[in-house]
Specification:
Layout lengths: L4 H13 L2 H7 L7 H8 L3 H18 L3 H13 L6 E6 L15 H20 L35 E6 L7 H6 E7 L2 E6 L2 H11 L22 H15 L14
Antiparallel strand pairs: 1-2, 3-4
Helix pairs in contact: 1-2, 1-4, 2-3, 3-9, 5-8
Amino acid sequence: MALTPKQQRFVAEYLIDLNATQAAIRAGYSAKTAKQIGQRLLTFVDVKAAIDAAIAKRSKSTEISADAVLQRFWSIATADANEIVEYRRTCCRYCHGRGNRYQRTQGELERDRAAHDVLVRAHQANSKEPHPGTFATMGGDGYDARKPPHPDCSECFGEGEGRTHIKDTRLLSAAAKCLYAGVKQTKEGIEAKLNDQHAALVNVARHLGMFEDVVKIKDGDLPDLTKMAPDELAALLTALRPLFAPPHLGGRGTADGA
């Protein structure tokens, strides 16, 4: 049986994003019944054959196989996001300083000492300048922001400081590269963008047939038939008819198998 113009449009729209509900809406079906109609259209033999043929043609022309798509989704779903971005709790400036005092890196300590020496020489050249006093090494040098918090720190109480770290994306594994979707500059800084792992896992499940697309009308979901246009009502009835057809005619039959 040839497809109706609306069914042909549905097939074309479904191939865009494989979303039956949105495809039905874009094909001209009512948004109120698009979910039911879209799912039922996928059960029509002619519609399914047209979709399968189009997918096969597209796969041949692009040399993309279903296995390759499935593997891509699986890589996104199972990639470790920590390969791309981490939230770390690391030491504060006081955690590992001598006497639990403010600690500097070696370079900071050398620069601060040099700046202090300048003040000392200025004071010696002009005694009217305030004396800079003795240079204080405080907690010493050796500060390393990568170290873990010290549990006995009296400043941060072992909590440390929170830091977000984005990895060098050139060094990502193959799976992490699938998950990575670029970076974005925001008011707060650089934000790493990731592909939706949950959506990828759902797509894997659909490819494996773990979900069965069945029309389920719950209390309150049934549309108001009195407010539907004649063509919308006809489309809904066409979509629902296979539910009540005998199994030997391609329907689901009644609850008792009749």
